[in-house]
Every structure is written in structure tokens, then in C-alpha cells.
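Recap from last week: sequence in, structure out.
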Amino acid sequence: MVGPEDRIPAYRLSISARLPRIAGLAAYWRPALAKALPDQGLVVDLRSGGYAAAWAPRRATVVSVRGFTPEGKVVSHFVKAIRGDVARALLLAPAVPSSPEDVAEIAAAAGLDASLNGANLDVTTAG
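Predicted C-alpha cells:
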């Protein structure tokens, strides 16, 4: 996990990597992440599934960002770009969102085709 101003070093170890003597990296990191990450307020989750398995808040309100094509197909490879667009919109917003509805409004105001679908912010690509 990183903050908005944290420098991110180059790395090549996926959460799905298998290492000797470790059952799985998600399970390995889960206790440390549970201690380090907030479990209250609003959490906008921009992680892929493997990383999401490493930590799930129990009390926080979570909004996960998903991407779709105009035809309704799930965007998998370019979803990082979509999540980056949402992150940019939230960081540049005049106020910090406090609800899933705020997240959807900020994304839409930034020009994204975004709608709230339960605990998910669904963003449709331009084409």
C-alpha cells in the first residue's frame, strides 16, 4: 500500500507468485496489512483481485472500481488506466469524498462514464 506522495520502487514480484516455504503471498501479507490499513471511513479500492484477497476491511465502506467496454464486456488489461483516471479525479477533487455517491459524482464530473452499482464504481471506456 502506498500514499499519494510515496515513491514506488521498481518491483517484479506479483501477489500470485509462489515462493518456497510461503503458502501464498496474499495470506502472508494479510496480518501486516490488517494492522497497517484503515478499517473505517471510505476506502476506494483500486486493486486487482489477487491483491484484494490480501486485505479486506470489515467496517469501512468500500468502493471497488471496475471497467467495462461500451458493449458491457469487462475490461481486464486496461483497467489499470481506468483506475488511474479515477484516482486522478479523486486526488484533484475540491473535497475529499465521504460516500460511494461522492466517488461516483467526482468521477462523472471529471468526464468519466461512471455509475455506482452496489459497492462498485463501474466505468465504461470511450471505445
